[in-house]
Amino acid sequence: MVNRWYRPAFEAAMKLTEWNREYWQYPPEMRAWVLMGHHSIMFGYVTLAPLYRELFGFDVFSDEAAKMQDDFLYLVFKGLQKP
Q: What are the residue boundaries of the structural domains of the chain, listed by start?
């Protein structure tokens, strides 16, 4: 699974951040941590959906909730961009 799915995805993401490093305000040595953080946010959102439904009372897979998650990720990564 690591070599078939994750390694290609993370290697592609690392190349994209290197290719466009003028766009990001974080130091290049933090790229792996930024990518790990993004992956954790997305993976946690999906795997913890039943918990979130119980805690917050809505389905995180609904169109409205998915839009809010998308908006949230936009704000998170907007903060990593250079002004």
A: 2-78
Whether the model clears a pTM of 0.85, i.e. scores above it, the answer is no
**DSSP secondary structure letter of residue 59:** -
Cα separation, 2 vs 21, in Å, equals 26
Note the pLDDT tens digit of each residue in 15-60.
877 766 666 777 778 888 888 888 899 889 999 999 999 999 999 9
Identify which of 16, 29, 23, 6 has the alpha carbon closest to the alpha carbon of residue 82. Answer: 23
- Residues contacting 28, CB < 8 A, separation 6+: 17, 18, 21
Give the separation between CA 78 and CA 73, rounded to whole angstroms: 8
